[in-house]
Amino acid sequence: MSPRHVLLAVLVAAIWGFNFVVLKVGLDEFPPILFSALRFLAAAVPAIFFVGRPSVAWRWIIAVGLVLGVAKFSFLFVGLKVGMPAGLGSLVLQSQVIFTTAFAAVVLHERPRPVQVTGIALAIGGIGLIAWDYGISSPLLGFALVVIAAACWGVSNVLMRYARPTDTLRFMVWVSAVAVLPLFGLSALTEDMSALGRLDWSGAASVGYVAWISTLLGFGIWGFLLRQYESSVVAPYSLLVPVFGIFSAWAFLGEDLSAVQLAAGGLVLAGLAIPQLLGRRAARTEVLPEPLVPAGR
To answer: How far is residue 232's CA from residue 282's CA, in Å, rounded to a whole number?
Structure first.
């Protein structure tokens, strides 16, 4: 990756890492699925009336909206609500790297190079060390739900690779719109929606951050990078998310940060740096799988 694109990937990781602190604030104000519905409503409206429809087949917009918007974030938000700590949640979610690389290898026939495998293995070792130091202190249900959310993220990464939206911001606005009604429906069936009548500044700010900064800006940049490089090149940068997430949780939520976690964060950084330090330049993909229907329909 070019230095500019590396910086963009790190910026997204920082945005998504701090996002876990914001999520904890929002989940104190709203039930989890309702909070997710509000974040996607804010991301979609009023932007959808100004950006126009993306030149991507409807099937990809709907598929990403359901897998990323509805499934991934429902599992993640409920997992955090039932007790998964913010720092540990940001860590466990990065198992999406394994899912993304595996799904891309099977579906897209992308084969990670040996140096990438080495870097990912080292970074995953750092994540494993952080997980060991944390210990399994949160409920098993919360842990399992976040792992399922990571698998959904891996599927959505591959779907976005197929879709190849030329304007990722426009694409994410429409993906957000797809998620709104299913999420509000799920919330109406399973949650108490009376929190809508008690909206305060902290609740509004948390919705604004996860809608405009985390969703539109973060996924807009992420989708752009996935268009430029293979999934196995981009996905490892999400391993920085738990580094930022753990530091943010320590700084703003008072979650403990040990010397072991600091050392493990260094392993994650080393794993990401290996392909760059060895001088391998990620090749842009020239041949991509054909969409199942013509783009734009």
So the answer is: 10
Q: How far apart are CA 172 and CA 29, in angstroms?
A: 25
Residue with tokens 């230095």: 3
Distance CA 160, CA 65 (A): 11
Q: Are 210 and 27 in contact (CB under 8 A)?
A: no
- Report domain extents, the chain: 3-277
Give DSSP secondary structure letters for 225-237.
Answer: HHHHS-HHHHGGG
Cβ neighbours, 10 Å, residue 124: 19
Query: Closest Cα partner for 226 from 51, 70, 18, 1?
Result: 1
Contact assessment for residue 246 and residue 269, using Cβ atoms and an 8 Å cutoff = no
**CA atoms 26, 31, 33, 35: torsion sign:** negative
Pair of tokens at residue 168: 């990722």
**φ and ψ at residue 48, rounded to 5 degrees:** -60, -25
Length of the chain as a residue count: 297
Q: Tens digits of per-residue pLDDT, 20-61?
A: 999 999 999 999 999 999 999 999 998 899 888 888 899 999
